[in-house]
């Protein structure tokens, strides 16, 4: 049985005025994905809503919703709203796994987060869908509105980490999701702002009104049209789209999207008549407010909420395992060494020091799967904690010591870019190991340059975080005043293999 979703009406090929239903083949869509593009107000969100409403009885749905536009679906259908701001990335990864297991349709509402956090949270959730156990690979529509936010074509103002995680998750969704039952449906205002590889994986297109030449050119390329032919997108009215692709139509087909049952929260602005100007207008507008108390300027902390959170967690004692009881503890004890070994192998690659956490985590999950560890793998926050430890070269005994706990608390107070280096020095000081060389310090801050390491150390010294001295034989000792300990002398110019950073090697 074929399931055809009714999207609205199509003009007959010769434009004789008669209209036929415009349908979308749902099974074909699951295999071939969909890209919707149109400028602001062209009706993309309305179109997605129509598609979601019409297909809700047939297929599980997840909506990545940056504006909180789709939460109203929960009123009329059985969708559950997950407020992303209320959960950590690790929790969202887990929640996504359960969403697949229990086959519940979900709206991931990202409206209360800034762009960077939207990217991180959406990435964690998408990765959770993607990493679900093979037993739960049921087909699912994954609708991403404003997809250019999550898969931008150019680096923006967000951190590299966030962009890579989000772009990676979107690429996985569109390029490798099909086998796992994930069918991406993505909408964007500006095709030119959407990463090319993500757009290119859709075989179905719905093109709405498009003004800018650069978007038009991209649309024509994707659809295999002459640029001249793509000019027709300029004159499309709101709610009118040109459909093309195996699930829609073999030739470009103009369609008009039909009505929807639920309403979005962001309608078009409506003109409302102005009220009469009141006589006391001056007083109304200019009347003084409550006496104002001058407030000192607030200094906002650096935008590193997630790193802060991790370090805070580190500073506290070990987090309780998700499930308690002797069986869970036994299982955790069994898996601990396996995770350590996997991490050791990943970090044994000299280039690992220069890879982002997201990339290393992907790697980690692949290794876990090879060990037949699925849902039990560490979540992202737990992985980050382990990684900070491993990168600082801390073994289990040191990690449990009160000195190390103090070092981690002290690190939490420092600017994010020097925490890794501080922990590296603290490790050497706490364990009485030789002072790390410039090369090692550079690696700890993700750089190949010893010069950068020396500048960073000088900066840390200036700020009073460390005190260094050079002994007569040229060896360096670094003391950490806050921790009341210092490293053994070490050669700043020594070059050794990066593996030696790892405990136990
Ligand atoms: N086919 C349609 N029939 C009736 N109303 C429509 C249709 N398409 C869109 N609208 C209305 O037009 C307005 C703008 O549509 P919509 O929010 O879907 O635009 P959009 O392309 O998602 O814009 P943005 O990129 O700014 O989010 C909404 O009020 C919507 O209800
Ligand atoms: Mg919209």
Question: Would you give an account of this structure?
Answer:
This protein is α/β, with parallel strands linked by helices and 505 residues long. The protein folds into three domains: 4-257, 3-Layer(aba) Sandwich (Rossmann fold), CATH 3.40.50.300; 304-392, no CATH class; 397-505, Winged helix-like DNA-binding domain superfamily/Winged helix DNA-binding domain (Arc Repressor Mutant, subunit A), CATH 1.10.10.10. Helices cover 42% and strands 15% of the residues. The chain is built from 20 helices and 14 strands. A hairpin with a 5-residue loop joins strand 12 and strand 13 (476-480). Helix 13 packs across helix 15 (380-392), helix 15 (380-392) crosses helix 18 and helix 17 packs antiparallel against helix 18 (416-430). It is elongated, with a radius of gyration of 28 Å. Residues 295-322 and 498-505 have low confidence and may be disordered. The structure holds adenosine-5'-triphosphate (ATP) and magnesium ion. The site of adenosine-5'-triphosphate has 15 residues, from helix 2.
């Amino acid at each position: 049985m074929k399931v055809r979703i009714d999207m609205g009406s199509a003009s007959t090929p010769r434009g004789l005025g008669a209209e036929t239903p415009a349908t979308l083949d749902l099974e074909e869509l699951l295999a071939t994905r969909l890209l919707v593009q149109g400028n602001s107000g062209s009706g993309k969100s309305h179109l997605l809503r129509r598609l979601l409403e019409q297909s809700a009885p047939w297929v599980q749905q997840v909506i990545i919703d940056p504006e909180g536009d789709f939460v109203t679906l929960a009123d009329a259908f059985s969708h559950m709203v997950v407020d992303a701001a209320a959960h950590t990335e690790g929790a969202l990864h887990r929640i996504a796994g359960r969403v697949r297991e229990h086959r519940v349709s979900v709206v991931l509402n990202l409206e209360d987060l800034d762009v960077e956090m939207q990217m991180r949270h959406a990435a964690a959730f998408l990765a959770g869908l993607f990493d679900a156990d093979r037993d739960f690979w049921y087909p699912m529509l994954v609708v991403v509105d404003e997809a250019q936010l999550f898969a931008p074509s150019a680096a923006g103002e967000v951190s590299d980490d966030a962009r890579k995680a989000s772009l990676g998750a979107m690429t996985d969704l569109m390029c490798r999701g099909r086998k796992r039952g994930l069918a991406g449906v993505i909408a964007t205002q500006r095709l030119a702002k959407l990463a090319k590889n993500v757009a290119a994986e859709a075989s179905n297109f719905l093109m709405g009104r498009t003004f800018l030449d650069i978007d038009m050119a991209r649309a024509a390329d994707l659809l295999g049209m002459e640029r001249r032919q793509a000019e027709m997108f300029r004159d499309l009215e709101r709610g009118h789209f040109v459909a093309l692709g195996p699930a829609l139509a073999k030739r470009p087909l103009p369609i008009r999207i039909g009505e929807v049952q639920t309403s979005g929260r962001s309608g078009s602005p409506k003109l409302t008549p102005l009220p009469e100007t009141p006589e006391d207008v001056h007083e109304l507008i200019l009347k003084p407010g409550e006496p104002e108390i001058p407030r000192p300027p607030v200094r906002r902390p650096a935008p590193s909420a997630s790193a802060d959170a991790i370090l805070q967690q580190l500073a506290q004692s070990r987090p309780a395992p998700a499930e308690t009881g002797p069986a869970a503890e036994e299982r955790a004890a069994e898996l601990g060494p396996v995770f350590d070994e996997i991490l050791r192998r990943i970090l044994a690659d000299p280039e690992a020091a220069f890879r982002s956490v997201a990339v290393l985590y992907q790697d980690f999950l692949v290794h876990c799967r090879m060990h037949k560890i699925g849902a039990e793998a560490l979540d992202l926050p737990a992985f980050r904690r382990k990684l900070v430890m491993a990168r600082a070269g801390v073994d289990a005994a040191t990690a449990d010591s009160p000195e190390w706990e103090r070092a981690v608390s002290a690190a939490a107070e420092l600017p994010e870019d020097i925490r890794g280096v501080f922990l590296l020095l603290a490790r050497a000081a706490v364990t009485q190991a030789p002072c790390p060389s410039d090369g090692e310090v550079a690696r700890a801050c993700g750089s190949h340059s010893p010069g950068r390491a020396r500048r960073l150390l000088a900066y840390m010294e200036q700020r009073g975080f460390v005190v260094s001295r050079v002994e007569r034989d040229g060896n360096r000792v670094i003391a950490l005043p806050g921790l009341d300990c210092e490293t053994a002398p070490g050669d700043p110019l020594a070059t050794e293999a990066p593996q030696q950073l790892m405990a136990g090697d």
